[in-house]
């Protein structure tokens, strides 16, 4: 089967079924991070790959921003499990025309974020490549019980941190060369170039054992919610009018309307489910997490699938589910 037919997540599932589960693997392929045992306890491990021309364009992305983002997306995976990041391994495929000053700039972005979160870069690899390639692996410490995608139940509330769609809208405007220096555009560009891994909010949620399931939004709200639903064997109903949107998004979305908020990617906000009787605890946590937490929907029986409804309860068609590296329209 061609990869364009199989799709990114079909490929991941195919690989998962091919590899054997080794000793000490508590959670392997298929979640935001692996969870493995070692003699002193256990660790979370995640890795991500960014390729020039696929994931970033150096025409509008500085190397410092790129370094920051390459680490941030991995820290977000650790956050999605409720963990604390500790170590990073960085491997680079470097084009021949690069010089040392350019690599210094890349590492400034990486080191700035690493220092902020107490992460140490402990190694990696370098090689010559036709275009810039960045591979980051992060090892972190799990909470007492890592939060997986598979624990949601029918009737659970669905929440997100922060605002949705900013990064995708920022990218769409960059691609259209709408580079005017308005405060709204600057905010959207920042959200695209320098996403915030929600480590503090995730740690509080995990410490209080509130989420039944959690994921970070990398491929779009609808698609990533679909991963939770598939792993938990539930459906979901999302209320469009409850989606948290920034003032910058509202000012510049125009005809794109809700598409970026529902199906755009790279927000790296937390998407989680929690029992309905925990609402008051989560509302109190809202004031401690350093980021807004919004209730946007409810888990339904699996046969309902994933639906978006308007304020009157009418179903809204979602044209695009989210990003898939291999599938093409």
Account of the 3D structure:
It is a single chain. This protein has helices at 3-18, 63-80, 100-116, 166-175, 183-193, 199-207, 221-232, 247-252, 259-263, 279-285; strands spanning 25-27, 34-38, 41-51, 84-94, 120-128, 133-141, 157-161, 211-216, 235-239, 270-274, 293-300, 306-309, 315-316. The protein has 329 residues and is an alpha+beta fold.
State the total count of DSSP E strands. 13
| Class by alpha and beta content | alpha+beta
Helical fraction: 25-40%
The total count of helices amounts to 10
Overall 3D shape: globular
Beta-strand portion reads 25-35%
Mean of residue pLDDT values: 88
Radius of gyration (Å): 19 Å
Helix-strand pattern, N to C?
Answer: HEEEHEHEEEHHHEHEHHEHEEE
| Regions with little confidence, pLDDT below 50 for 5+ residues | none
Termini separation:
17 Å
Strands ordered across the widest β-sheet? 8-10-7-11-9-12-13
Largest sheet, described in full?
7 strands, mixed
Architecture blueprint of SSEs:
Layout: H1 3-18, E1 25-27, E2 34-38, E3 41-51, H2 63-80, E4 84-94, H3 100-116, E5 120-128, E6 133-141, E7 157-161, H4 166-175, H5 183-193, H6 199-207, E8 211-216, H7 221-232, E9 235-239, H8 247-252, H9 259-263, E10 270-274, H10 279-285, E11 293-300, E12 306-309, E13 315-316
Helix pairs in contact: 2-3, 2-6, 4-5
